[in-house]
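Fig. S4 source data, part A: sequence.
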Amino acid sequence: PKILTMPGKPQNADNRTKIHRKRRGNESVGYERGSDGEVGKKAKMSTGGGDDEQEKILNELLTEFVGKKSGGSKTGGKPSDRARLLQKAVDQGWLRSVVSPAIIQEDEDSSRLEHLCQIWATLLSSEGASGRLTSATLDFLVLAESQSKEKPSIQHVVLNNLLFEARKKLTQRGQQEASFVPDEWLATICHCLTLLGSVDRDSPNSIWGLAMQKNKSSKTEGTTIPAQDLMDYISPHVRELIKRKNPSFFIADENASSRENDDTFPPFLVCLLEKLLTDFERSEMEEDDDEQAKEANNKAIFVHRALEWIVDLLSLSADGSARTFCCWYLKAIFFSIRAARTDNHCGGSAAGHLTIQLLNSIEEWQDFPLQQKQQDLPPMPQSHQETMGLYYRRATTFQKLCHRYHTHTLGDIIFAGLGRLCGSQGDHKGSSKFISSSLASLSDGQLRTLLHKLRLLDENQDSIDLRRLFEDRSFLLQVLTDYLQQPKNALQELRRVPIFCTEKLLWDATKIPPNHSSLLMPSRVLSLPKLSSTHYLSFTDYLWRNFRLLQLETAAAIRTDLVSVIRRLRPVLTMSTDDEEDEAMNSSAVDDTQMKTSFAGWARMALELQPQEQGSGLKIVKVEKPLLGETHAHEVFAECAIDLGPCGAAIRKEWDSLSEHDNIFFVAIHASPDNTGTEPPPTIQEFRASLGYDTSGDGSKSGGTRLVPDDDDPSFPHRYGVRLVRGGTIVEIRDEKGTVLTDAFALTSNDGENSKTEGTKRIIKVALDPVQYSIDMKNKISYGSMNLVVRRQGRENSFKSLLETTRGLLSGTDAVHRVLPVWLQSILLGHGSPSAANYRSTGMQDYATKTVGVADPDAFLDYGDTFLDEAHLRESFVGGSDIGSIRVDDCDGIAKEAPQRRRNYKIRFLKQVDGENMIEATSYERDESQSKGNPIRFTPKQVEAIRSGLSCGLTLVVGPPGTGKTDVAVQIIASLFHSFPGQRTVIITHSNAALNDIFEKVMARGDVEERYLLRLGSGERDLQTDSSHDFTKLGRVHYCFGRRSDLLEQVQQLSESLGLSGRAERGADGSPSYTCESAEIFFTKTIQPKLRVYLTQNENKTMSENERAAQFPFRSFFSVSEELTEKDSETFVERLRMVFQELAEYRPLELLRSQRQRADYFLIKQARVVAMTSTHAAIARAHLISLGFQYDNLVVEEAGQMREIDTFIPLLLQQGETNDDSATRSRLKRVCLLGDHNQLPPVIKNMTFARYSNMDQSLFARLIRLGVPCIELDKQGRARPEIAALYNWRYRSLGNMEHVVSAEQFRLANPGFARTLQFVNVEDFQGKGETTPTAFFYQNVGEAEYVVALFQFMVLIGYPSDSISILTTYNGQKELVSDIVEQRCGEGTPLAGVRPGAISTVDQYQGQQNDYILLSLVRTESIGHLRDIRRLVVAVSRARYGLFAFGRYDLFASHHELEKVLSSFDDGLPSPNATRKLELILNETYPSNRSTKDNPTDGDKTLFVVEDVGQMGAIVHQMQEDILQQE
């Protein structure tokens, strides 16, 4: 980004252009560079107490960026020197540590303050433009914004200064100054407004409002003035009309009369829009030389940045009134119409195309269907019917005016249908032509008068520019048509958008941005939707943004997969047959018809299609007729054939694992001599030049020879002959015998085994996109040319369900309001009080009182075995801010008799007069036969999280590494099951591994009976369980039938013990004769009467144990002896009832005949805990709703790693009530999100989407940024305290649990190592540091060899290999480490077959841990994506006992955000500089009894410092040689 330079005033009109070209600075600035190169000052200016180092940094920045010598020339160095200084400032965090404190301390009237504000904005813009706006900077900005409102925050001070200066320069005060304002300066201001507005969690009046206020005198006076000031700069006639229609928006202003003629500067937004329109209307600058080309480039950057901010102002504004005023002002000055009338900045270049897209976005957001009835209320979505009614009323008013004043001349208008005038069918061109031709009989004056009566313009307009436009008839007609024509219905247009991407979208650089920032245009602005960091306008807005971004991001991922496959296949031209080849060899030329496309390579994920009828690769087999009201086919089915014969067993198994609803892609590749993939992609310089970008400074180190990656190369289809790309969803797959292989219910027998497939040929039936098929048929595109089928990985291939689900929600967004609880809706949109959904709030307590299925605030809740004993219960609440006294009762009297026995507790909180809560707890006996019990002594914070999870409302639990958030989730699930046994709980996680982990813990606890557990999705096969059947729907059906057989056998034995039946009644195979239905009759007619008599006798008199045994009617069945205690009697009776009660649950399974029906019944009626991934939730949503699935509680683990939409869809897996007047129309009562926003965010492969569109933001992080109350767990129990010190500073008050300090395994030192953790500096190995064999595929051989050698060393001294994990920050390094491990531990070596517990990237290893971690940081030239501190937090928090990081220490320590972590490696050491080399303890083996406090060199042990990787390799080699000699 360009450095801010305050514009100077020209001396006269003749030198304006000269000053404009050279960008002269302010003559009064007094900073200069001394002759010796040291930074000096001409005038002594103090920062107000800053130290010498900070003052030196400030002087360096001021001298380089705004300094001048006495002669007037800049003293700053070359642009490259400035770029390096800027990079250094960003890396060192000078914006926060140096510049910001100086601004706060500076006098508000000093000239230096203005320059400091320039530098502050430049640094912020630099971080944002490079995509490196780090989390620390964002945290700083958010915290600064949330400080006391009595004193302006740093961003308010900066923006007030910059905006005031910009307004002053842009305002024309008798001189033509506006044209001399540097475009790069304004671009930086607009960029800062965009960046700061995105992190402002309060009203935008606090940041964006500064750009809409009319400041009277001081540039720092006031910080929030309503956007109502914009109304002072529109026509009084229009302003009064707006006031009459919307009186609630306008605040009475006592000084309104005196402000009409005041001498203040207009708001920045007013000045900015005027400059934009002036630039649009001015003739384009001819780019005759480099200076003029640079001018044009700066102009384009300014336009893009300004339009981007305006789009954000209209679409991301949290304050509806600010957005509304902005829309009124834009319409009052006819901004969209005036901007569209000029071709300047809108030519055929990429920059011009972007300008058009941004202007279209502004127009769309102006017309967004939204209505706001009061200023203090959030806006509400406007339905399509309401929008139509608005425009129809406008057309009716227009017709009435025409009838009144032009009855005889405008008959066509008067009697035209409303749809003709409003363009209701989307025929805007026809409507405009009709209006224009119908009004041809009116003169310009009559037309102008008619528009004035419609109150579309003011004939007494003050603006000269507008008065000139009012003389233009085409402008008047455009104003009228814009007023009458109804905007296109975005939801209807959405239904006509194909779900599957095609080749046109895949390689359209204007829609799918490149993944790498070097390929973006200089402004770094894109025409992409953005996910808001805080607020949304409505759920329509929320879903629309997510749908568009998901569609484009999915297309980018599909493009990457297709490019990889096609490159591996290497399409070439070959002769079609052997005979034709022989004939062609003898001929002088070969006809194209004699050639065919074949593939010289091989790809795991693709197969060539086998020709079917007439040589067609993809054959259409069925086309369903369109539904009523649709224009495209309802369904389209096609078939293709593949041959798995050439595939190996593993690849064949992968293809056979394709199932129903999987998505595959068909590609038509026609190779030719010109496109066989041999032509290289363009260089980055060529690519940028072809799009008209500024290429100065491009080419990087290779002198402009660095190639564009194939993923981002728009010419890839031409180079490889890609003609068509179409997608389809698998309906069924058949083998050679016609057996359907995708029907799991048909293929699976009762014992769970699958039938075998026949042959290698497979027929795949797919459902094509009917919308795309209709488009292709109109364009006469044939599918017969398809010759390739491509599959994708399972998790990445669920995009279609997610897109269809989101589109379905968009089509009926009113359903969202019915499904979501009222208390959750405002929170999700970012409106209202952030604490409104917290269980402590008054609103939620009222909701709990009135809602069925929610316990009253003072009712008992069953905490089950949360507490290990009464002491644990008391210590969990003592010291709470709202806790007074605690009383524990014994409800059954057993606690005193057997105090050593474990108890369960029910607890309620009673509000006292003094406002404190009294805790009343009741203990009861725990059934140890049913549950293994909770073994964890939960901390008070964990208990608080459990309490919140049991209460109604929204619960956010922040779980730092090792704090046991999964255990908290399990306890919440178990306690919900006990407290509300009739309610259903849904568990959602991001990954199958995390879901299996939490599901296994729920099973192991035993609190939830197995028949109530259900695991949906394909990851169930990885569950580690002792159950006889799996936990899929089908497995649960088999389990239920097994339980049914066991229970019926007990009923049969009971009947035989009573003498009512014998063995003769059993089946031939000895099976019981009873069914669930007959068992119920048996219980009603026989068992219940006997029980009734027995219990009556037992109640009427006190019986001895002998008498009770004699009267007990089921003595034979229970093998009762001469005595029967009362407790045993109650147990036997309860067992009988439970047998028949459970059988009653299985009775419907006897009535349902198909396995699918039984599985669905189990899902909707019997399952009480249903677990699935977020991906499966999107896939199964439509089916769940069709079944009538309902649930009451939602627990989301890994919420910090999920995209917004991935967390949002699980909230909508059921239908709401149709009665909108009911406050309890949603059954959902509790939502519990657990995660950690300080660890890695959701994975977005295309970094442009992540950085620009904020797609890597999770709903969990957004809610925390909004200020929603959260519970942060404060005790970690995973790592040694010294390892935890590496990351605990990122959290509020993260401490250590007792066992990590006192337990033996944590007190013992790591054998063979002098230290528990160490950062090992690795210099270049064989003259090389980081390398990139292919673009962005980073490797470091030295570090890879070092970590593998250390792994070998650890294994050789006795460490279990599976207790060691090797992590790295790049996939390239992971592959390299894996290859080295294969070599060093391959066959013929002493460590043959030994492998680490994991070789993984940091991103993939999040959520896992191991005893010892070896970490390779790879980079040696730049920090790379480790710049994100969240990634480093994950990396250093995976180890329990030992952590050893390998990297270039000086590089990473130079970055301010990483410095704190790296310095923690040396805490407590006397000489940190001497610890950069690996320190080993020789002659020590695993395990060891040495304590961490012992001297590691006691006895025969020796401290050995490893100099480099070569020496480490020599040590390992010698150890292996010794082993071989011993053998």
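Fig. S4 source data, part B ends here. The chain has a mean pLDDT of 81.
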